[in-house]
Amino acid sequence: MRRNSHPKAVNALLIVDVQYDFIDGSLALKNCPSQHQGEQVIPMINKLLKDIHFDVVVYTQDWHTHDHISFFDNLHLRAHLLAKDSKQAHELNVFDTAIFLLDDPRPLRVEQILWPAHCIQHTHGAELHKDLNIIKPTKTRKIINLLKGYDSNIDSYSAFWDNMKIRETELHSKLKAHNVSQVFIVGIATDVCVYFTALHALENGYKTYLIQDACRGVDETNINLRLDELKGRHCSVIQTADVKDLI
């Protein structure tokens, strides 16, 4: 008699950008409209790592060059590349969106939020927070460390793609190599890097869970809009207490 058998899900925890600059540095969430305390994600994530065996754990980091396009302080480097329908350099402020026309190598129209300088390569602000548990690989658990946003002309919110979807990171190929079928996403910021990572995880066919109480974001209104959009795309927005029953 044939028994119905379902392959066991292979689970990955994606820990997005739990870095000093988003917690108490130049782009700290507590200074953003949400006034979220970014460090509050750390005990939630550490508990998940302690209590639940994920087959793959991914740590991502923004890893920007000092001349990165996303930094307001670098606007003068590309002011001559602003599109005619963009606000011009003298009109732009921090957190405004600039529109650049680049050749990279083909012509690109890049809409870029201008952030305070943050997560510059090899600086303290770019490091993962010391209180975050950095676990080691074992025979049954793989670890992936992913740096993103290191192209000076194109930002990369998502752990899967740059913002223009020109260059794919190695994450999808590595997850597939480990036969991952479900991803659980935590970290910073809910409405930016976490959102885009979840969006692309869905596009890549993963069963995708965003663990809401283990994320913090920039703007409450935008967070709610992003979560509603993800739910509409069949992302499950859950709490840490729900995870054990899904593994």
From TrEMBL:
The keyword Hydrolase applies. It is an enzyme of class 3 (hydrolase). One of its GO terms (molecular function) is metal ion binding. Pathway: Cofactor biosynthesis; nicotinate biosynthesis; nicotinate from nicotinamide: step 1/1. One of its GO terms (biological process) is pyridine nucleotide biosynthetic process. SUPFAM superfamilies: Isochorismatase-like hydrolases. Keywords: Hydrolase, Metal-binding, Pyridine nucleotide biosynthesis. Residues 12-241 form the Isochorismatase-like domain. InterPro entries: Isochorismatase-like_dom, Isochorismatase-like_sf, Isochorismatase_Nicotinamidase. Its EC number is 3.5.1.19. It comes from the Eukaryota. Belongs to the isochorismatase family. This is nicotinamidase. It comes from Adineta steineri.
